[in-house]
Design goal:
By secondary structure, the protein is α/β, with parallel strands linked by helices. The chain has a single domain, classed as TIM Barrel. It is globular and about 50 Å long. It is built from eleven helices and eight strands. The structure holds flavin-adenine dinucleotide. Flavin-adenine dinucleotide binds next to strand 3, helix 5, helix 6 and strand 6.
Length: 288
């Protein structure tokens, strides 16, 4: 079922992002997580796609496995850096033939071993090119990634917004943000986007901080600011993993409560294939 249609009919809701597990054990565990999260009637669940297509088969398998086990609408992430039109066409055709009708269209980052790859020589240069290509199938709901603090390679917030506008105009139906830990970045981005004529739904990407060091590294790579107050709170409980999870949940609950109070109706959770933190967060929220 197309997510753009669901977003028009549901008044609020949540979505969950998974990565494709590497092992049979990981796959079983993901299905258990999915079972636990089903109680929240997610708008959709999505599965990431490794940089440069490195998880191509696993992403597909995970998508089909979830589809077989559940009625939750599903979305596959798809990156185009280093990919050919033929390979993208093949995967889209397979999805289409199997009723997978939602794609998160991404450029992706250069994977390890591909650092010398010259993007300008690829068949797809930016996510915008992929959006245009997917559009030609006349079948998929297309989502794109957006960056409240600007994408790490963008020269300025203004340039980033212009490129975002271009990929939205190419045919995106909705957008999901990069993680952020200070809601002001999100509110400011949404305001700038609306002023620039970007009128598609923008879902905030929520990353519960359950492992501070790991998230800090990731946040620094993708230019997501962790406010000093949050850093300080984690510094005080360093070396206590259980307290860290509790604090991470507390911070995410506050963040989501503030978003809901400010009229946000849909929340997208980066789950890291775990359900505990997300269920604890959702137990404290009232999204009708
Ligand atoms: P683009 O929109 O193409 O932007 C890339 C850069 O190019 C930006 O700096 C942009 O401003 C600039 N740009 C865009 N168009 C132009 C233009 N016409 N001229 C000049 N510059 C331009 N990565 C994965 O590998 N797998 C995943 O599954 C995955 N899932 C993600 C999910 C979400 C919600 C988010 C926010 C990110 C995800 N990523 C994933 C990371 C993403 O691939 C990286 O952030 C990547 O660096 C950019 O991808 P993009 O689609 O935003 O690229």
């Amino acid at each position: 079922m197309r997510i753009d249609e669901i977003l028009k009919t549901r008044s609020s809701g949540v979505s969950f992002e998974f990565f494709p597990p590497k092992t049979a054990e990981g796959r079983e565990s993901l299905l258990r997580v999915l079972n636990q999260l089903e109680q929240y009637s997610p708008i959709y669940v999505s599965v990431t796609y490794g940089a440069g297509g490195t998880t191509r088969e696993r992403t597909k398998e995970t998508i089909f496995q979830i589809k077989e086990r559940s009625d939750i609408p599903i979305m596959s992430h798809l990156t185009c850096i280093g990919a050919t039109r033929d390979s993208i066409s093949n995967i889209l055709t397979e999805y289409m033939n199997n009723g997978v009708d939602n794609i998160l269209a991404l450029r992706g980052d250069k994977p390890q071993g591909m650092e010398d790859f010259d993007i300008s020589k690829g068949e797809f240069r930016y996510a915008e090119d992929l959006v245009k290509f997917i559009k030609t199938f006349n079948y998929f709901c297309i989502a794109v990634a957006v960056y409240p603090e600007g994408h790490q390679e963008s020269p300025s917030l203004e340039a980033d917004l212009e490129y975002t506008k271009m990929k939205v105009d190419a045919g995106a139906d909705f957008a999901i943000t990069q993680m952020f830990f200070d809601n002001r970045f999100f509110y400011d981005f949404v305001e700038r986007a609306q002023k620039r004529g970007i009128n598609i739904p923008i879902l905030p990407g929520i990353m519960p901080i359950t492992d501070f060091e790991k998230i800090r590294k990731f946040a620094s790579f993708c230019k997501a600011t962790i406010p000093v107050e949050i850093e300080d709170k984690f510094a005080r409980i360093s070396g206590k993993p259980e307290d860290m999870v509790k604090l991470g949940v507390e911070i995410a609950v506050k963040q989501c409560e503030d978003l809901i109070e400010n009229g946000v109706r849909f929340l997208h959770f980066y789950t890291l294939n775990k359900s505990d933190a997300v269920t604890d967060i959702l137990a404290s929220l009232s999204l009708d």
